[in-house]
Amino acid sequence: MDKKEYNDLLQTDVYKDVQGLFLKFYQRYLNPATNAVYLFRKMQYMNSFKDWFHKIITKLLQKKLANQYGILASPNAIIGKNLRFVHPSSIVIGAHVVAGENLSLYQNTTLGGSHTGDVNKGNQPVLGNNVTVFANSLILGKVLVGNNVVIGANSLVLLSDIPENAVCVGSPAKIINRKIK
């Protein structure tokens, strides 16, 4: 991740049409939802450098994110623009998770492997654009979640892929509605 890409992500994820120095300060440091996203993006940016100093800063930011918000996120996860931690607490994002733009995660959600050691095998979810994962939901294993998907509260996506334009709930998750565009 280069400096321009980092600044673009901050502009879309943290500032979102905010004007003025005080409002930018508020969005970055005082608003918990955007502060968590800021820390995550900063951690990813620092991880893009290969020297030991930046790796230490990455680990410190990862620790701060975990201690302050309970978000255990890998800096290696690939997540597109407009990331939102709606209620930033107890969110887990695995090392090889790939997600498109406009991902919204509510509290107590997990995106990761279904077994210990899945990081090495790449068995982690791939999410499309415009995905919303509501509270207490789990997306585990090598699962493909399509574009424009809503995963309801307390859902477990483990066994099958979720097609585009779907709403799914339950454990295991079942499609209850297909949005027609």
Annotated CATH architecture of the largest domain: 3 Solenoid
Strand content: 15-25%
Could you tell me the number of beta strands? 15
Q: What characteristic shape results from the CA principal axes?
A: globular
Q: Summarize the amount of helix as a percent range.
A: 25-40%
What is the number of domains? 2
Describe the structure.
The chain has a 6-stranded mixed β-sheet. Helix 1 (3-15) packs antiparallel against helix 3 (32-47) and helix 3 (32-47) runs antiparallel to helix 4 (52-69). Helix content is 34%, strand content 22%. It folds into 2 domains: 1-69, no CATH class; 76-181, 3 Solenoid (UDP N-Acetylglucosamine Acyltransferase, domain 1), CATH 2.160.10.10. The chain has 181 residues and is an alpha/beta fold. The longest helix has 18 residues, at 52-69.
Task: Please give a handful of descriptors for the protein shown.
globular, UDP N-Acetylglucosamine Acyltransferase, domain 1, alpha/beta, 181 residues
Question: Short summary of the structure?
Answer:
By secondary structure, this protein is an alpha/beta fold. It folds into two domains: 1-69, no CATH class; 76-181, Hexapeptide repeat proteins (UDP N-Acetylglucosamine Acyltransferase, domain 1, 3 Solenoid), CATH 2.160.10. The protein has helices at residues 3-15, 21-30, 32-47, 52-69, 118-121; strands at 72-73, 78-79, 84-85, 92-93, 98-99, 104-105, 110-112, 126-127, 131-133, 138-140, 144-145, 149-151, 156-157, 166-169, 174-178.
